[in-house]
Amino acid sequence: MFPPRRSSSEQPSRSREEPWLARGLKPENFVPGLVIGFLMGLFLDISASYRGHSLKGRTLSKQLKTASDGGGEELKMVLVVRQDLKMGAGKIASQCAHAATGMYADLLQSQRSLLRQWENSGQAKIVLSCKNQQEMNKLKEAADRCGLPTFVVADAGRTQILAGSRTVLAIGPAGRKSLIDSVTGKLRLL
């Protein structure tokens, strides 16, 4: 595993000496390192998801049971698209993808257990439409008052829409579907 030690009088030949990178990438070194790295990453990910998740004396198992019960309701994410912008179908699909992945990234940092429950329940997403920016603002305010997670997409302005235009509002997922429905229940499907 370790190269033999050489005395100071022996000068290695430059033509026969392997570069340091080639020595490190030999299968006998690389494969065990890869396996150890994978196992360490898996361990750290699992331990991070359980670290610091008990609130006010509640155990993690009680939290998961309570959140997964959700009153017998499923978890869903609602994506609200502005109709006044007259976006094409591809643009709408792209903006909805930005909203879903933006919400996912936020929840990955703040509410990982909720995110995992949503993933395990099929990752339901509903796409609805609103009339304009004012209606979207009211929906975001209502969702924030209810304690629902929200994410707003601001377009970069490279194609159809002016830079900074707010195109899609993502709401949820949340433990209670009825809570999201209380905010978005009167909107039409896109």
From TrEMBL:
GO terms for molecular function: peptidyl-tRNA hydrolase activity. It catalyses: an N-acyl-L-alpha-aminoacyl-tRNA + H2O = an N-acyl-L-amino acid + a tRNA + H(+). Residues 1-20 are annotated as: Disordered. Keywords: Hydrolase. It is an enzyme of class 3 (hydrolase). One of its GO terms (cellular component) is cytosol. It holds the Pfam family PTH2. Belongs to the PTH2 family. This is peptidyl-tRNA hydrolase. The keyword Nucleotide-binding does not apply. The gene is LOC120251802. The keyword Iron-sulfur does not apply. It comes from Dioscorea cayennensis subsp. rotundata. Its EC number is 3.1.1.29. Residues 1-12 have a biased composition (Low complexity).
